[in-house]
Amino acid sequence: MNFPWRTTLLALILAAPAAAATPEAAPVATLDTALIASMKAGSAGQGYTTRYNALDPVVMKSYNMSQVEQDSVGFLWSTLPAAQQQELSALFEQFTVASYVSEFNAYGGQQLQILPSEKALGSKKIIETQLVPADGSSPTELDYVVSDGPNGWQITDVLLNGTISQVAIHASDFSSLVTSGDASQLISALKSKIAALSGGQ
Description:
Blueprint: H1 4-15, H2 26-43, H3 48-62, H4 65-73, H5 82-103, E1 111-121, E2 124-132, E3 140-149, E4 152-160, E5 164-165, H6 166-174, H7 184-198
Antiparallel strand pairs: 1-2, 2-3, 3-4, 4-5
Helix pairs in contact: 1-2, 1-3, 2-3, 3-5, 4-6, 5-7
């Protein structure tokens, strides 16, 4: 099925300049630009699939997804068969993008702002951002942990309210679903989560 809005929206996202003062903030700025575009697209009536397809390459560019998935599964990752690792990689990508599409689904004048301060976390950096409502109410803090690797600076974790590690939450939730050499329960759980977030699309 062709989605005529997809090409236009994706071009706008990728062409938008990233308002990042430092290289380590660049992936966060790129993602923020894409999320605002996705919210505007949702308000303009564009469906889940169109917004997912536009946001997916931006998330994959901004995130070190292989690091996120391995940290989320935990130390048993290395015991899993290659086929399950590959399936989990695809599902983590879908789950991450689906979560963004579901949560950032309508635009009402909000702004995503990168704060000028950066915190060091060993060799990593914490990029502080705020989701600022248009009505002047208190902003929501959403910070990103970034690390430098072969593909440059990329996101490896999200800190909800500035302190709660999303990867740590996933590791806690998923630990009971993985045993040495088998992640079939986690695979089923992720498929269910993706279906719920996407409305079955």
